[in-house]
Task: structure prediction
Amino acid sequence: MSDVTAGAAGEVVLRVEHLTVRYERQSVVNDLSFEVHRGDRVMIVGPNGAGKTTLFRALLGFVPCEGRIWWHPGVSVGFVPQGLDVNRKFPLTVRELFHFGRTALAEEAIRDGLTAVNAAALSGRSLATLSSGEFQRVLIAFALAQQPDVLLFDEPTSDIDIGGQETIYQRLESVATARALTLLMISHDLNVVLNYATEVLCLSRDFHCHGRPIDILTPDVLRKLYGPGAQFYRHTHAPAAEGHDGHPH
Result:
């Protein structure tokens, strides 16, 4: 099933038509179509193995695919992975990381990127001293410092506690609004989707739909995505009790 609904009014920055990605003749993404408009905050949800990261790899041109992916001419696209496999013991500070291999990244852009995710105090810290959550914030800041038009996030707060996640998403929303930045984020947290998404794209192996969270995230759709026993629990900013973490169960 594919139910593509219109996004927010505005210029189309990405159009995907009948996208199919296969690995060894097995379809991971199958006949997917949707549009993204400038300023949209699109959350991509679905069970593990549904093709969410594969979709990002296709959008970035990293894997061969069928169908059509169209980016608006001149659009700059950034990407924040779910962590990064680097040797954190390399003798490099956060600020040096921003300059590593790049000489054109302006100091103001670096400062703005770090400030946007409340990481300015990390500038002089060695990478080896950063926690996983701090390092993830640095990766987000690095992407923002490059001043893209569109940012793709693969679970950008996966190693950050719930309170920290709330701060990150609030800041990203503020930056996105100020810069007319378009965000595409993979998330397993439906609370985040409901609170911050303007559009949601639901993916599973044999089902996908696209539209406003309030219209799309129905009990019927959740059952189609996650199985007949799927339920949704809201969490607060305090540490969640088991089974009440805002994820589908």
